[in-house]
């Protein structure tokens, strides 16, 4: 727990408070506040006051230990055997040993790493950084980016991925990245650090996989933390460690040595202070209250103190789809009342994820002022397994941002496993097979003026035999083929056989496809590029994600081949949007399947399909 | 700032008008009165009167501020004017102890005014938990607001220097603005209700479905003086819509409605006060409190405490908006991991009872 108070959560939060004032001062003008001079910040006052407060808190914790009759022995500790600990040479025997040494920052071994600072040093800098490079996309990187940006440093954040905060809900990742950029932080995405070079004038240059950026006064690495298990003597005692040095424990926090236990970041489970607290309390109950208790890791709320901050509890949308299948997603993206007078571009994003079958709230996510405090309360609700109906029955507190969570009436999107999978199952049950499809195509194709492509999973191809499949479909006049479950690396043999039969193999690229890979996909794709317009299982969505626009731009830069956008398209508005962004075509699936499935008869279904298709097509003209 | 505020209010008004239009609601602007169980008359802005018949009439005219009949009361303003004062009041006097009074006192004090707050009781915010009321009072004083408990105003006199105010204790004050925030009453006077036979002014004027004593006339919101909060009006209206048009008679649920008072620092509550809990108790009541100077203040040096309080029925372990609504227990609170560092996490880490209030059977009286 020493990390949190001295070199973690507490000093971090104090610095976050300090850095928020700049935004508040900017905000205040719209509310009528004028100053003769702009407020200026004195770094040394902040650090001195921060350190005084940490001293005070350390004193308090020491008192708490004292009052609980805990003997505090200060020094460097080592485990000698299952019941013996050595502290600076003095030996202590004990019935149980608990290891809670936490983690330490990890800096990759690149040339110039001696010039880099970690989060420990960043909390105690002698002066404010003028221009700082922060390497990393996790919560530590974002929090420090916000701190230094708020204190008027020039901040550049370098991340390996396309977006920050891997593991968080995709909508939240997009939103916080955008909001932070609007506040002046410059993000360099898909860049890996290669070296830090010290220039003649004392400044640092950061060389990455994409180039070099000069002029940094500081380079900070926030690229992960490793369990702090070196030199504890653990290996000699037989305590099993994972590859990254984490102490392996069972559900009761017991290590491979029966009298030795471990909790907190050193076990690399969920690395949050309150979780370590929970693990510690469960252990106390198990060992000393004769009440074996396992810590419960479900629905652990957590926060990122970026600016704006994030609060989250429960599953992300992606996790919810994976674990529950059918879900309803409610989102709200709005300008908070405060920003209406200030004129600043601040917005708030709030999201509820609900299981469509049980109505249980699976996840609550928010990015905006006060989200951490707000989400704490909702954490109790999610942990207690409350439903959307329970939320809706709760009267809001007005006027607040939080009340949005209890007044979300219309789902932004409904995800139903109305995927190709479900549609395929239904048609298979009705007796559809490859031969019946080939028969139909044989009759119908001569009357069509447009080319026909087939969309299939790999299994039917495998069953028929690759060569036979390709020649059969060529014989009836099919021109293109899409096989979504074969990844790029394995399409080679498919392509060869397709080419032999003059069939064009169309490949798919998605919003999460890394740029390098996307380029290889567009190179290899025949006919056109199939751009998946949203992540996750297909299902008619309420509106097309704005990401499509930038993805289209990227793809168009990489190739001249036509691009068609698909997955979730169901309305003329979608088509108009996508066409406006430069797509050459749109692909409609679920909407048609649903329409046909819901129709009272095939004839009626076809009629409705005709009018749907006409309305979609007219949006293209 | 006032211009920006007015612009924003106009913008929001237009949005609401659009919402109505998009829902195919016809908006008639003018002064309305009820002339029959199924008839409404509107006197439009140009003076002409039109009548409309309707199957149902819903009254949602809200409330209006009420000024006590103190000599010189015409010199005082209500919250209506307070929201659009032309000039900033350097010296302000506020009469009242409710949320409106403390909110305006905080707003003006926050902008640097000298503020004197007068209220009838020992503490402001009657009806709220006493321990919380005491802290609110202490915090208002801490921010420099002068509190005058158990004091009313006797007279207001216009002078060249401002408004001279004489308190019920005989003290004299001078202010640029005197705000009367002593209560609001349902806004039903000019609706012609008496002629139609609708009784709205007493308590219980509408039933649980928001229907008045006239079957075709309904009322929701502050006009019915139940719980006068916007989201509650919203709830009452939604239930009305379900009952009358949705074929599903729905009663509004008034239990565990959360509410906030936006004084500085603000107060937020849900569920029973300690006093109410003790009153309704059928067993022991456990009170968990956490009072602390929040982290931010330790650096700024401000001496201002945060108080967080949880009241639990020991027998059922049930303790609070969403959670209380579904009878969540203290155990469920405790099993929720905290978000750190935050103030909110205190609510899920209250391990030790601050005090226990033993159940006392009410004495049977024969009167």
UniProtKB/TrEMBL annotation, chain A:
It catalyses: 2 glutathione + NADP(+) = glutathione disulfide + NADPH + H(+); (1S,2R)-1-C-(indol-3-yl)glycerol 3-phosphate + L-serine = D-glyceraldehyde 3-phosphate + L-tryptophan + H2O. Pathway: Amino-acid biosynthesis; L-tryptophan biosynthesis; L-tryptophan from chorismate: step 5/5. Homodimer. Residues 300-408 form the Pyridine nucleotide-disulphide oxidoreductase dimerisation domain. This is Tryptophan synthase. GO terms for cellular component: cytosol; mitochondrion. The keyword Chaperone does not apply. Residues 3-280 form the FAD/NAD(P)-binding domain. Its cofactor is FAD. Keywords: Amino-acid biosynthesis, Aromatic amino acid biosynthesis, Disulfide bond, FAD, Flavoprotein, Lyase, NADP, Oxidoreductase, Redox-active center, Tryptophan biosynthesis. It comes from Brassica cretica. Belongs to the class-I pyridine nucleotide-disulfide oxidoreductase family. GO terms for biological process: cell redox homeostasis; cellular response to oxidative stress; glutathione metabolic process. One of its GO terms (molecular function) is glutathione-disulfide reductase (NADPH) activity. Pfam families: Pyr_redox_2, Pyr_redox_dim, Trp_syntA.
From TrEMBL, chain B:
One of its GO terms (biological process) is cell redox homeostasis. GO terms for molecular function: flavin adenine dinucleotide binding; glutathione-disulfide reductase (NADPH) activity. Keywords: Disulfide bond, FAD, Flavoprotein, NADP, Oxidoreductase, Redox-active center. Its EC number is 1.8.1.7. SUPFAM superfamilies: FAD/NAD(P)-binding domain, FAD/NAD-linked reductases, dimerisation (C-terminal) domain. One of its GO terms (cellular component) is cytosol. Residues 8-237 form the FAD/NAD(P)-binding domain. Its cofactor is FAD. Gene3D superfamilies: 3.30.390.30, FAD/NAD(P)-binding domain (3.50.50.60). It catalyses: 2 glutathione + NADP(+) = glutathione disulfide + NADPH + H(+). Homodimer. Belongs to the class-I pyridine nucleotide-disulfide oxidoreductase family. This is glutathione-disulfide reductase. It comes from Brassica cretica (Mustard). The lineage of its organism: Eukaryota, Viridiplantae, Streptophyta, Embryophyta, Tracheophyta.
């Amino acid at each position: 727990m020493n990390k949190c108070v001295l070199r973690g959560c507490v000093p971090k939060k104090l610095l976050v408070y300090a850095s928020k004032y700049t935004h508040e001062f900017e905000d205040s003008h719209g509310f009528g506040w004028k100053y003769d001079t702009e407020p200026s910040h004195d770094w040394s006052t902040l650090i001195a006051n921060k350190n005084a407060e940490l001293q005070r808190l350390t004193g308090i914790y020491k008192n708490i230990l004292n009052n609980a009759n805990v003997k505090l022995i200060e020094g460097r500790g080592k485990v000698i055997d299952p019941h013996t600990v050595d502290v600076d040479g003095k030996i202590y025997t004990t019935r149980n040993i608990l290891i809670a040494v936490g983690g330490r920052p990890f800096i990759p071994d690149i040339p110039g790493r001696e010039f880099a600072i970690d989060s420990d040093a960043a909390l105690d800098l002698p002066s404010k950084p003028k221009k700082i490079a922060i390497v990393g996309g996790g919560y530590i990187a974002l929090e420090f980016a916000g701190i230094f940006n708020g204190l008027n440093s020039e901040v550049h954040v370098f991340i390996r991925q396309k977006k920050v905060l891997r593991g968080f809900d995709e909508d939240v990742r997009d939103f916080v990245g955008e909001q932070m950029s609007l506040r002046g932080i410059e993000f360099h995405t898909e860049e890996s650090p290669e070296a830090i070079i010290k220039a003649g004038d004392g400044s640092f240059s950061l060389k990455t996989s994409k180039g070099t950026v000069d002029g940094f006064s500081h380079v900070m690495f926030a690229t992960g933390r490793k369990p702090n298990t070196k030199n504890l003597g653990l290996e000699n005692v037989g305590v099993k460690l994972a590859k990254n040095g984490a102490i392996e424990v069972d559900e009761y926090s017991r290590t491979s040595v029966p009298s030795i236990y471990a909790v907190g970041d050193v076990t690399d489970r969920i690395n949050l202070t309150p979780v370590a607290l929970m693990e510690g309390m469960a252990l106390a109950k198990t060992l000393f209250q004769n009440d074996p208790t396992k810590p419960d890791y479900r629905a652990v709320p957590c926060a990122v103190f970026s600016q704006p901050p994030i609060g989250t509890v429960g599953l992300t949308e992606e996790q919810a789809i994976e674990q529950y299948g059918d879900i309803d997603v409610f989102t709200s993206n709005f300008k908070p009342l405060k920003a209406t007078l200030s004129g600043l571009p601040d917005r708030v994003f709030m999201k509820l994820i609900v299981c469509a079958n049980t109505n249980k709230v699976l996840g609550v996510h928010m990015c905006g002022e006060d989200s951490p405090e707000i989400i704490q309360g909702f954490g109790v609700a999610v942990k207690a397994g409350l439903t959307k109906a329970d939320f809706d029955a709760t009267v809001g507190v007005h006027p607040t941002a939080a009340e949005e969570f209890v007044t979300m009436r219309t789902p932004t999107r409904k995800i139903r496993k109305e995927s190709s999978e479900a549609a395929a199952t239904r048609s298979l049950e009705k007796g559809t097979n490859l031969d019946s499809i080939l028969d139909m195509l044989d009759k119908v194709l001569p009357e069509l003026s447009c080319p026909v492509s087939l969309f299939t999973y790999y299994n039917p191809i495998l069953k028929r035999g690759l060569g036979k499949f390709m020649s059969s479909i060529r014989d009836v006049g099919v021109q293109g083929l899409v096989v979504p479950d074969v990844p790029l690396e394995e399409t080679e043999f498919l392509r060869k056989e397709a080419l032999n039969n003059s069939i064009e193999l169309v490949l798919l690229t998605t919003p999460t496809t890394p740029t390098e890979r996307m380029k290889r996909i567009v190179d290899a794709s025949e006919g056109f590029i199939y751009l998946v317009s949203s992540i996750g299982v297909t299902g008619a969505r309420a509106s097309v994600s704005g990401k499509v626009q930038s993805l289209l731009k990227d793809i168009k830069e990489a190739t001249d081949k036509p691009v068609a956008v698909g997955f979730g398209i169901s309305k003329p508005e979608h088509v108009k949007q996508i066409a406006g962004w430069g797509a050459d075509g749109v692909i409609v699936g679920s909407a048609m399947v649903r329409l046909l499935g819901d129709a009272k008869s095939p004839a009626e279904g076809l009629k409705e399909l005709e009018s749907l298709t006409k309305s979609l097509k007219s949006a293209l003209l | 700032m006032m211009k920006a505020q007015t612009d924003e209010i106009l913008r929001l008004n237009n949005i609401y008008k659009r919402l109505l239009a998009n829902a195919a609601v016809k908006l008639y602007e003018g002064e309305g009165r009820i002339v029959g169980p199924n008839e409404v008359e509107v006197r439009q802005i140009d003076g002409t009167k039109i009548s409309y018949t309707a199957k149902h009439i819903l009254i949602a005219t809200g409330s209006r501020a009420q000024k006590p009949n103190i000599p010189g009361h015409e010199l005082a303003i209500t919250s209506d004017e307070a929201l659009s004062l032309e000039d900033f009041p350097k010296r302000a006097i506020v009469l009242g102890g409710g949320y409106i009074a403390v909110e305006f006192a905080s707003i003006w004090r926050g902008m640097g005014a000298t503020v004197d707050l007068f209220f009838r009781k020992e503490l402001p915010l009657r009806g709220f938990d006493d321990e919380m009321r005491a802290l609110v009072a202490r915090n208002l004083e801490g921010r420099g607001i002068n509190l005058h408990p158990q004091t009313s105003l006797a007279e207001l006199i216009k002078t060249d220097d401002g408004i001279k105010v004489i308190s019920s204790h005989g003290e004299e004050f001078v202010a640029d603005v005197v705000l009367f925030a002593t209560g609001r009453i349902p806004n039903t006077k000019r609706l012609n209700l008496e002629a139609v036979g609708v009784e709205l002014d007493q308590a219980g004027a509408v039933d649980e479905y928001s229907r008045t004593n006239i079957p075709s006339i309904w009322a929701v919101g502050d006009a019915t003086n139940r719980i006068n909060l916007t989201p509650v009006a919203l709830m009452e209206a939604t239930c009305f819509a379900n009952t009358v048009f949705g074929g599903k008679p729905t009663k509004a649920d008034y239990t565990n409605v959360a509410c906030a008072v936006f004084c500085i620092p603000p107060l937020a509550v849900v569920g029973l006060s300690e006093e109410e809990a003790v009153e309704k108790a059928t067993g022991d009541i456990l009170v968990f409190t956490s009072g602390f100077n929040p982290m931010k203040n330790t650096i700024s040096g401000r001496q201002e405490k945060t108080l967080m309080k949880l009241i639990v029925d020991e027998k059922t372990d049930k303790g609070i908006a969403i959670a209380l609504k579904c009878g969540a227990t203290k155990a469920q609170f405790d099993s929720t991991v905290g978000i750190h560092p935050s103030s909110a996490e205190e609510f899920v880490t209250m391990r030790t009872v601050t005090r226990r209030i033993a159940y006392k059977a009410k004495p049977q009286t024969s009167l």
